[in-house]
């Protein structure tokens, strides 16, 4: 759509600008402020330069958390994206069953995150949870509060449970937009099921899949509540991801300087991914020609 | 001659074959799909079923015996939540700030989304991108600064503080979703209305808003949902008066840690608002999560 140049449009955007500036810029400035200062307590601060940043870059703590975070995000993407596409391909195309599946699949997406944690915390318990009890009866040692592998599996399965439907719904929306003529053409060419997927469905889904990947990466990158409720970041630090570590540092230990430096570096990574996301979105809009 | 007659039905059948292709695909595909979808839905629903199952049991039954369904059906857990103010006020508090947040977000996002979808102005792309970064901002980064900001202006432990804090990600979300819907409305409508002598506010309220009613509904739903499911900020910004249900739940776990039945019932009740409206937005869930693009 050709947009008219109109500088007065700024007035329409102004409320958003003021509101978001109040809730984003001011707090962010506080963080910047803390990141370059040190304190002896009693609210006396002095300039510390970039010391906290170099401290954080040298400490293993942040790198370990970042490493765990990247492994976690990588693992859940590797499971959720293919699984989501697979589920989308198997969804009914229309009618009652399509709505039925849509409604049930959306359910986990709308559950408060701490309740998601609570559900899995209960579900995995050996004494009262269905999953834990069954595994225990099968003779598999499973204890997500003590065993690192079990904790990781629980957190990953929980995320797959929580968010695969989102990937599936996005992929499904992409599939729905493919005109029937494409399938008919493929039929005339006697294309195999795989060829239909590879040369028709996958390219047509590429845009939405890109959104799905970025959204999942983004949201898993700042995951906090669910693993916090289930494992509390443990056993040890095994499931302490970036956000959990940051909250521990800032609110638990009140190490404002390091936490602020950590926050800013965290935020820079987010900014970078946001930019990729934005570019993808804009290209998608252009391709759709709207 | 015989060849051509033998071929003719086949050739004639080709178009027929094509028109049949959709039912044929349907007849063939569901076999495998039904199994896949059933398994997937069982995987999704089993943990939820287990929560509901536990919420209908007494604590003695939860801890004493293991059963797949409540043998001794009780509503006592729900009764406790709905009669004890320290529990049900959690829901009331959550609902208050969530509704406040939804109203604020939509009120400011509507004009902004219109501006983004219709006009180009200085810095529009940067602004749009900047909004996106706030949707993506990790709440953990903002928890402490928010706490200090709202404490210093005397808003700590009020509903409006949480509502404003959630604007951080909900306003950008609403702007993006609404912009996605608005760009689908032809610009000619605006131009015709202006030619007919409509002023901007009157056009916006009388003509434009009804056209994007579904978009507003979807944006409202997502603002509601994201504010409802968020825990970190709402917990950090409240202590007593505005304590959300999510925080009430976590504190009960750490304090007594034993009342599984009530915890499960509280969990089930938090799913209810989403489950109630889910049917109406089922076709827009993907669009909403993808910020109005799809």
UniProtKB/TrEMBL annotation, chain A:
SUPFAM superfamilies in the cross-refs? MetI-like
Every copy of the ABC transmembrane type-1 domain together lies at 66-277
Query: One Pfam family for this entry, by name?
Result: BPD_transp_1
Kindly indicate whether the keyword Endoplasmic reticulum belongs to this entry.
no
Q: Name one GO biological process term.
A: transmembrane transport
The compartments listed are: Cell membrane
Which keywords does this chain's UniProt record carry? Membrane, Transmembrane, Transmembrane helix, Transport
Q: Which Gene3D superfamilies match?
A: MetI-like
**Topology versus the membrane:** Multi-pass membrane protein
Q: What is this protein called?
A: Carbohydrate ABC transporter membrane protein 1, CUT1 family
UniProtKB/TrEMBL annotation, chain B:
Where does the protein principally reside? membrane
Q: Which PROSITE patterns match?
A: ABC_TM1
Q: Where is the ABC transmembrane type-1 domain?
A: 91-281
Name of the featured protein: Carbohydrate ABC transporter membrane protein 2, CUT1 family
Record's Gene Ontology CC terms? Answer: plasma membrane
The question of whether RNA-binding is a record keyword is answered with: no
Region annotated Disordered sits at 1-24
Any idea where this protein resides? Cell membrane
Q: Name one Pfam family in it.
A: BPD_transp_1
Protein family membership: Belongs to the binding-protein-dependent transport system permease family.
What does the UniProt keyword field contain? Cell membrane, Membrane, Transmembrane, Transmembrane helix, Transport
The keyword Zinc-finger is annotated on this UniProt entry:
no
Matching PANTHER family:
ABC TRANSPORTER PERMEASE PROTEIN (PTHR32243:SF52), MALTOSE TRANSPORT SYSTEM PERMEASE-RELATED (PTHR32243)
Q: InterPro entries annotated for this entry?
A: BP-dep_ABC_trans_perm, MetI-like, MetI-like_sf
- GO terms of biological process kind: transmembrane transport
Topological type in the membrane: Multi-pass membrane protein
* Membrane-spanning parts: 34-52, 95-116, 128-147, 159-182, 203-229, 260-281
């Amino acid at each position: 759509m050709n947009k008219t140049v109109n500088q007065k449009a700024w007035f329409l955007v102004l409320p958003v600008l003021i509101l978001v500036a109040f809730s984003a810029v001011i707090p962010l400035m506080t963080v910047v402020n803390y990141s370059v200062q040190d304190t002896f307590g009693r609210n006396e601060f002095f300039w510390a330069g970039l010391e906290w940043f170099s401290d954080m870059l040298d400490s293993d703590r942040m790198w370990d958390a970042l490493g765990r975070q990247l492994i976690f995000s990588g693992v859940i993407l590797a499971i959720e994206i293919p699984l989501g596409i697979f589920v989308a391909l198997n969804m009914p195309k229309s009618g009652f069953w399509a709505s039925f599946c849509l409604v049930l699949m959306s359910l986990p997406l709308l559950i408060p995150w701490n309740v998601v944690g609570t559900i899995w915390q209960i579900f995995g318990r050996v004494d009262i949870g269905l999953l834990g009890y069954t595994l225990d009866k099968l003779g598999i040692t499973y204890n997500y509060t003590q065993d690192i592998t079990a904790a990781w599996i629980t957190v990953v399965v929980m995320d797959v449970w929580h968010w695969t439907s989102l990937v599936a719904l996005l992929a499904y929306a992409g599939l729905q937009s493919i005109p029937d003529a494409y399938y008919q053409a493929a039929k005339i060419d006697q294309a195999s099921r795989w060829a239909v997927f590879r040369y028709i469905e996958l390219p047509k889904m590429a845009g939405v899949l890109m959104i799905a990947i970025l959204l999942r990466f983004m949201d898993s990158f700042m995951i906090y509540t669910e693993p916090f409720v289930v494992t509390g970041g443990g056993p040890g630090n095994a499931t302490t991801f970036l956000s959990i570590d940051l909250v521990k540092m800032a609110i638990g230990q009140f190490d404002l300087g390091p936490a602020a430096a950590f926050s800013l570096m965290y935020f820079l990574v987010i900014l970078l991914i946001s930019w990729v996301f934005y570019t993808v979105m804009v290209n998608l809009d252009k391709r759709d020609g709207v | 001659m015989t060849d051509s007659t033998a071929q003719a039905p086949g050739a004639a059948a080709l178009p027929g074959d094509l028109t049949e292709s959709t039912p044929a695909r349907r007849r063939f595909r569901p076999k495998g799909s039904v199994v896949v979808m059933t398994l997937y839905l069982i995987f999704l629903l089993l943990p939820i079923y287990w929560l509901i199952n536990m919420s209908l049991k007494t604590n003695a039954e939860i801890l004493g015996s293991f059963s797949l369904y409540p043998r001794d059906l009780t509503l006592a857990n729900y009764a406790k939540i709905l009669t004890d103010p320290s529990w049900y006020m959690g829901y009331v508090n959550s609902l208050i700030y969530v509704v406040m947040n939804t109203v604020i977000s939509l009120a400011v996002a509507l004009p902004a989304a219109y501006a983004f979808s219709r006009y180009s102005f200085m810095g529009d792309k940067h602004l749009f991108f900047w909004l996106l970064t706030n949707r993506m901002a990790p709440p953990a980064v903002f928890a402490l600064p928010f706490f200090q900001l709202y404490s210093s202006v005397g808003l700590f432990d009020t509903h409006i503080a949480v509502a404003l804090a959630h604007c951080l990600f909900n306003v950008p979300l609403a702007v993006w979703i609404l912009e996605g819907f608005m760009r689908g409305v032809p610009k000619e409508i605006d131009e015709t209305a202006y030619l007919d002598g409509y002023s901007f506010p009157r056009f916006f309220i009388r003509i434009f808003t009804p056209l994007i009613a579904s978009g507003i509904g979807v944006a409202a739903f997502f603002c509601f949902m994201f504010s409802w499911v968020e825990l970190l900020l709402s917990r950090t910004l409240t202590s007593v008066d505005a304590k959300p249900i999510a925080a009430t739940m976590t504190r009960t776990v750490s304090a007594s840690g034993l009342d599984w039945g009530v915890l499960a019932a509280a969990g089930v009740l938090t799913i209810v608002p989403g489950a109630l409206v889910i049917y109406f937005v089922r076709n827009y869930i993907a669009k909403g999560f993808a910020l109005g693009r799809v």
